Amino acid sequence: MTEKKKMTQQLGVRIPDSLEPVYANLIKISHADDEVTLTFLHKIPETNLAQGRAIVTITPQHAKRLLRALSTNLKRYEATYGEIKLPEDGSGREEKSNVEVA
Asked: CA 27, CA 43: separation in Å to the nearest integer?
């Protein structure tokens, strides 16, 4: 089977009833030679506190695929809804990035 054919196969996904969505407005990214760890946090507004919501560890290859998938999906989003403006790019009030690289 070709690589392209493998990628187009459907994947059955089971999500347990007990799995609840979480909200995160800050992500800490760290890495080792064989893994990338994303720590999803909820920074409490007007405080210096953040609460951990989820920790996801993936391989560097999966991280690169995630980067590619996010880029593709954000381009589609902007094509539909318009450009996403970031305050740190001078498009509004100045604000610290919500992604921290460790």
From this structure: 10
CA neighbor of 56 nearest in space, from 31, 34, 33, 38: 38
Calculate the alpha carbon distances from 16 to 13, 19, 20, 73 in Å.
10, 5, 9, 26
Burial code (b: 16+ CB inside 10 Å, e: under 16) for 15-34 equals eeeeeeeeebebbbeeeeee
**pLDDT tens for the chain, residues 1 to 102:** 555 555 678 999 999 999 999 999 999 999 999 999 999 999 999 999 999 999 999 999 999 999 999 999 999 999 999 999 988 887 554 445 566 665
